[in-house]
Design brief:
Elements (H helix, E strand, L loop, with lengths): L1 H26 L6 E8 L4 E8 L2 E8 L2 H10 L5
Antiparallel strand pairs: 1-2, 2-3
């Protein structure tokens, strides 16, 4: 039982830390060292996610229309 309780406490702590990071990231200004922004892409029926942590900048996008993703990738010179 003690191992199960420590596992549950660790899981709850991880959730609290993740929620805290998301809250700070969503409410931060765009030029702050840590920020998270989500933009909707209405015509593509998708979202764009940007995460900035210091000089590291990560970008991810998702679309409900996979053909548009392939076309955008192809015109940008990337492989799909």
């Amino acid at each position: 039982m003690p191992a199960r309780q420590s596992l549950i406490k660790s899981f709850v702590a991880a959730i609290v830390i993740a929620v805290a990071c998301l809250t700070v990231g969503f409410t931060a200004e765009a030029d702050s060292p840590f920020s998270i922004s989500i933009h909707t892409a209405f015509l593509q029926l998708g979202i764009d996610l940007d995460v900035k942590l210091g000089s590291l900048h990560l970008h991810a996008s998702w679309s409900a229309l996979p053909a548009i993703d392939r076309l955008a990738n192809q015109t940008a010179g990337g492989r799909f």
